[in-house]
Amino acid sequence: MTAAADRPRPEYGEYATPEQVAKARGMTLEEYERHLASLTRPRVEEQATDATAPAATAPAVERPAAPAPAASDKGAGNRMATTMLLVFGLACTLLSIPSLLGLGDGLATAFGAQGLDAYTSFTAARAFGIIAIIAQLLLWVLTLWLSVAAVRRGRASWWIPLVAGVLAVLLVSALWLAAIIVDPAFMRYVESVSLQA
């Protein structure tokens, strides 16, 4: 058997010669070649400089460029979302530094507002605040590194800063809670409530 016999029968003009295509379109070969040439070369026609001369044909209209593939749009949206979440995370981290450095003062105010004894564990609160700041900054740097690596590989990366944000909130909340629990005034309050119950 020959290779031509093994091949499936062509459909939709796949293997058609230019002569066959021209004939199918009802054109001569020369007309078909002119038609192909008009599609491939730039269509720039100069208009007549004489205002009284009638235009022989309407000026050619340039076809718009083909739209970018949807995959690159998806990649752009992923990069934009990742960048926005990273910027938001960095802003939250930087804006939380003053309150975490003054964690003891904030807890003293909260204890006073609740009618508890005075908050006295300022050293522990400052240490927990500094640990929270360092942990947030390290988590943000790790998030940036993982996000950039995912974007370079062409993978979805928007979820990385989102998960890191949740982890940062949980971490800071745990350290904030630890600063409350280590204070003797809070422990006395817990004991008094448990004795009343």
Task: Summarize the structure in words.
This protein has 197 residues and is mainly α. The protein has 2 domains: 13-65, no CATH class; 72-196, no CATH class. Helix content is 69%, strand content 0%. The protein is built from 8 helices and no strands. It has helices at 3-6, 18-25, 29-40, 70-101, 103-114, 122-152, 159-181, 184-196. The longest helix is centred in the middle third of the chain and has 32 residues, at 70-101. The radius of gyration is 36 Å and the shape is rod-shaped.
Number of individual domains:
2
Biggest sheet details: none
Stretches where pLDDT is under 50 for at least 5 consecutive residues are none
Structural shape = rod-shaped
The first-to-last residue Cα distance is 96 Å
Radius of gyration: 36 Å
The overall strand count is 0
Proportion of residues in β-strands: under 5%
Topology:
Blueprint: H1 3-6, H2 18-25, H3 29-40, H4 70-101, H5 103-114, H6 122-152, H7 159-181, H8 184-196
Helix pairs in contact: 2-3, 4-6, 4-7, 5-6, 6-7
Task: List its traits.
197 residues; mainly alpha; 8 helices; rod-shaped
Offer a quick outline of the entry.
This protein has 197 residues and is mainly α. It has helices spanning 3-6, 18-25, 29-40, 70-101, 103-114, 122-152, 159-181, 184-196. It is rod-shaped and about 100 Å long.
